[in-house]
Amino acid sequence: MAVLAESGSNPDVDLLYDINGLAKDAPHWFDRVMEFVGEYGLLLAMVLLILWCWWSVRRRGGEDAAPSVAALVWAPLAAGLAVLVNVPIRGFVERPRPFVDHQGLDVLVSGKTDFSFVSDHATITMALGVGLFVAHRRFGLAGIGLALLEGFCRVYMGVHYPTDVIGGFALGTAVVLLLSPPATALLTPLMRAVERSPRAGRLVRRRPPSAAGRDALLPGARPAPESEERDLAA
């Protein structure tokens, strides 16, 4: 890894200086915003996006509700697993933070003493983004966009090389996609069981199938008028 730490013609280091150089030219308040966004803000935004996707899937209901919710449950589980996988990777590579080997960087976050490769933030956000994409493409694209922005912020802040970020993206994506089939096989039946529950079923869809069936069998229940049937058909 010594080669990666050398500057000169190394595009990894050159790109680090180019992106981090933007922080030197930016106003102080903007750097403080980027510090918060890169350290905490985008992780919080990703959590809120997952909750929004869950709410949307739950309201829509249908036969795809349980598999979609299962994919949403898998996303944070995969992110946590990817971080655990990164522990031995960091210990094996032992790549110092860029500000240790390179002078003149504008480091926005102090106290980073662990190794640099790969970026936990990039790993977590991309795992969540790809997991979202498996559950819902539109939300997933937004999540992947947030992950890419997170990667940019980590380099902008001077705490990671670009290859640290790329490695995190690859790790998060690999864990989600490679383990998605067995995870889905385990989680989807569990979500279907939750869906059938009279109380917990609302976690999967707004109106569980059992509740809809009971309403259909209520004494005195009348079929919907023709106009309502036409509206539903439309």
TrEMBL record:
Keyword Membrane attributed: yes
Localization of this protein: Cell membrane
Keyword entries, A-Z: Cell membrane, Hydrolase, Membrane, Transmembrane, Transmembrane helix
InterPro entries membership: PAP2/HPO, PAP2/HPO_sf
Membrane-topology descriptor: Multi-pass membrane protein
Basic and acidic residues: bias regions: 225-234
Protein name from the UniProt record: Phosphatase PAP2 family protein
